[in-house]
Amino acid sequence: MINRKKFLKIGTLGLSSLFAPAAFTHARTISNLNPKATEDALSAAPKQSRTKQQSLTFGIIADLHYDLMHDGDRRAQLFIDAINKEQPDFIISLGDFCMPKPANTKLMTIWAQFKGKKHYVLGNHDTDGGFTKQQALTFWGAEKPYYSFDDKGLHFVVLDGNEKDPNNKVEGYPRTIGQEQLHWLKQDLQQTKLRTVIFCHQGLENTMSGIDNGMQVRYLLEQINTESGFNKVILVLTGHHHLNYHNEINGIHYVQINSSSYYWAGETFESKAFDETFYKNHGILKRTLVYKDPIWALVSIGKKDITIRGTETVMAGVPLNQTGIDVYKDVYPISSKIDSRHLTYSPKK
Description:
The protein is of the alpha/beta class and 349 residues long. Helix content is 22%, strand content 19%. The protein is built from eight helices and 14 strands.
């Protein structure tokens, strides 16, 4: 039997055939100042401590799975078209975006139609086909598997949830945040005075194939908030699970952003959404519930609240209630939507 992991490992290509689009540039604050201003800024208190938080909006999409979808170009284009009308401060892919192979340069061309800042989270399937993390990052125009950045008085952290734990072998793909990264995360959060949003591919609070040491990471975030005397870390956004839910744990919001493309129904599931000719060309999709249209969200962060404007569609071909699947098989109900939400967080005392 062909399992999901084998199905998803599509198209192995040699290193010499890789094509890397031009790297995007990150906004830099001090480097744009004149030399005198730079000297003054470096000798004074950290600039972020004086930066006022402003309202900020970003577009977010998870689990496009461009390599699997029969209409990946259409899905990507619809997202970019909608985002270009909104003009958010940046966009971010939450992982399982695409493998770094030449055939996928068309996706990067579509992505480049958004002229603003772009960020990427590494997903477990972005390195299928024998590719490395660095190859995926280079292909997208990203720099590091985990890093942080500031924007409009807010701090953002991108985590790499695809590390191996040398002392604990997990089933399937690696899904640990290693000790070196944890040490970096603690230092990074201690150094900023800004409200913080965390991005990670796998859920930190989902025990079904989520981050293996998710409790350890969550406790670190909670410790940071306690040490800071206010809710510094306010929001964690994840993908990977192809579900739609929200948890608030000890004052931190954890929001799962549903896949833009499909729900994995299992190796024994046989979809009837398309005809047999279709499944001959797209065999893996027979094991999925394909969303008719792509879904994504816009996230806006104000001084006291977080607004998520989600989108929704229907299942392609066959309505969900006629698929015969248990919609609670992964605890949280299967759906083809991202809920709109209004969340609040405690102001500084």
